User: What shape does this take?
Amino acid sequence: MSQVQRYAAFTTDPAGGNPAGVVLDADELDEADMQRIATQVGYSETAFVLRAGRTGHDLGLRFFSPLAEVAFCGHATIASSVALVASGAQGPFRFATKAGPVVVTTTLESGAVHAQLRSVPGHSRPVDPGVLHEVLAALRWPIDDLDPDYPPHVAYAGNDHLVLATGTRQRLAALDYDVARLKEICVREGWTTLQLFWPENESTIHARNPFPVGGVIEDPATGAAAAALGAYLREIGRVPKPRVVTILQGVDMGRPSTLTMAMDPNDQTITVTGTAVPIPAEPQPR
Assistant: This one.
């Protein structure tokens, strides 16, 4: 089995952030191998770096959840970039993904490698009212708990995500959804995750991210959904000028994560920045 490195993304603490598997030498693996490894690792995603037929900073990158391949994964992209720098490579990296090209620049700040990904062009559209009714039933949320200033949308910046804003932090904290029903809806609609958020103020957003289609109840940090959220905010007129938002995620799971997301009204791409740290190997039983 190819060596799997384990990183926690969007954190400086291995006990926080979102764990990702990273395989830096995946050229000899086929799709079945990648799926098998991702299932064994058990994280929300494992990333596979492909070098064959590419030169310099141009690399392929594929992502697998425990159940299926995902076109784009932000936290595993950040983890892969930090792992590449740790292996001696230098950015920027130009990753060919199934969602399109994603460029990552890296910087060293206070001893930590920070990676900034630039998404594929994003967009957003209102969700069908009937589908929204189904989702709220699966979430066990009354419609009055949604923030009327943020209309429900399906947003894209590499994957489709349903974006819903809550009116209170308490509603966001009390996440208890029907996993089977929400998975059925997400599969039918082609959504990767739900981006549930509460806007504390103009510069801080709290988020939670159910991921039933990947076999994971919830992601503690989701770079792809953060990018989609940026596309959504731009679409609904919340980005009249360049804007930077800190997204706090994973707090209610006990894995706090910090994502920095930047938007520009004249640019369809979104940047998402964070760091990643290795997860120490668990001691083997004697």
